[in-house]
Amino acid sequence: MHPYLIAQRPPSRLTRRAATLLPWLLLAFCGASFAIGDAQTPSSGAWGYLQKQFYPDGNIGLLDESYMSLEAPANTPDPAATPLTLRFGDAAVGHIKQIRVIIDNNPSPVAATFDVTSGARVAEIDMRVRVDRFTSVRAIAQTTDGKLEMRSTWVNASGGCSAPPSAAAAGMLGDIRFRPSPDAKSMLISIRHPNNSGFQIDPRSGEPIPPHYVSHLRLSTGGRTLLEADTGISLSENPTLRIASDQPLPAPVTVDIDDSKDAHFNASWRGAVAESAATNTAGAGGTR
Amino acid sequence: MFVHLGQQLALDAPGHDDIANIGFIVGAKCVAVIDTGGSMRIGRALRAAIRQRTRLPICYVVNTHVHVDHVLGNAAFDQDRPSFIGHWALAAAMARSRDFFLQHYADDLEQPPSAAQIIAPDRLVAQTLELDLGGRRLSLRAWPTAHTDCDLTVLDDQSRTLWTGDLLFRDRLPALDGSASGWLAVIDQLARLQVRRTVPGHGPVTVDLASALNAERRYLRALIEGVHDELAQGGSMQDAIAHVAAAEKPKWLLWDSTHPHNVARVYEQMEWE
Description:
The structure holds two protein chains of two kinds.
Chain A: E1 4-5, H1 13-21, H2 47-54, E2 60-61, E3 68-71, E4 82-88, E5 96-103, E6 110-116, E7 122-129, E8 135-143, E9 148-155, E10 176-180, E11 186-191, E12 200-201, E13 208-209, E14 214-221, E15 224-231, E16 240-245, E17 253-259, E18 264-269, H3 272-287
Parallel strand pairs in A: 2-9
Antiparallel strand pairs in A: 3-4, 4-7, 5-6, 5-8, 6-15, 7-16, 8-9, 10-11, 11-16, 12-13, 14-15, 14-17, 17-18
Chain B: E1 2-4, E2 22-26, E3 31-34, H1 40-53, E4 58-62, H2 68-71, E5 83-87, H3 90-104, E6 123-125, E7 128-132, E8 137-142, E9 152-156, E10 161-169, H4 180-191, E11 197-202, H5 209-232, H6 237-243, H7 255-270
Parallel strand pairs in B: 3-4, 4-5, 5-6, 10-11
Antiparallel strand pairs in B: 1-2, 2-3, 7-8, 8-9, 9-10
Helix pairs in contact in B: 4-5, 5-7, 6-7
């Protein structure tokens, strides 16, 4: 290593001589080796036995990308909150009965099972998941006429299940926020919940944190159930769900949540008009 | 005062242990090391470079924050029995990171890897601390959460040279592991410092600190404003990663390996603000 001099003591003969001897160019280090190694080799993990369990005689289609797609970022921004996006093409919207999301190499591979109400026009589902180690992530959709379609993607991430709770983990358990898109065709739902995986350590006490997660949620729009989901420890801390349709989602949008400690939370979004009316009412009340 | 400039490489590229700017300052009685590089190999090379220039004792090893590329060479200086110095939150941050370093950077430690090689500070800076190297004074300052929760700067009073650690990135895209708004607040304070020369955590040395901070400030503001707008429209994290601050992309190195992480960090925080 040849660090270069950028400031020196008031020059003495010795340091002046030293400075002239210092090369200003840096010598590159050679021979560095780095290998991610076996972790990058795809492994089917749990898929083999899960396929036997859930789809024992299933003939699973793999070809039609326009029917359904599954996206995850190539560079995971956060192993404990890796975003997944499921999109359904025109031919699929209104014809999906169930979607199961499986993270092969996670300790609890089934991240979520969505049961969609018959005929409900779900065009997109976004969620954030924990990824424990390099893995395939797959989504298997069952259509209303009984066919199966699968998409999978590879996620380079590790440590998401044991990542310590983040600073954003504070706040009120069960707080739910709704963020509709301007055209009301999508709704982003953020749920304040630690969703502890059971593989985390409390950084202060050094003790394991017991699992505590959102186990079930029901989403209703316009007074009708749109979908229900069984969920588990693979959802990220402060789970989010974004649902999009090809038509505006009718208010009220209501979420009912059960967690693994049998707590229940629910909240409703009553629509842009009702929201601004409520604000107006409160404002008027304040001036009286 | 000597600096070795790290290479602008990703954290998983060959040579990833040599990406941070590191160096040392020599007084009349003592040497202070500022950051030790991302491996035992780099730490040893730095120690050898010091020993080529002076026999004075290495009294202090200062770590500017917890990141692997700045601390993993600490153990190369254990034999000198220096005082290891860091921000008051650095000890806890290193305890949190120890398993991660062992899992992901085992090859960069002395074999076999051990937790004992990951050396945490024995002296913590609550707000400021002055070190006397013998006729040469260093002023250390601990900052509120910005790039990380344990950022520390070192000012050599004699030459008015500021070592920012990763509070300043040049050319390489800033990596956010703390708070974007907190970082902007610290940038405003740094920009007011009267210094003659600045050694950033990554990128070339500069004589114009205020200008160097501008690029970083512009990116962090774009990040915050972009995520705010994305959330206001009910956009997902994926949407935010695709859209936020996209105009900044051609202005920085290593965008693809760092920007998605930054967006995710800000998104997760702003979701509940």
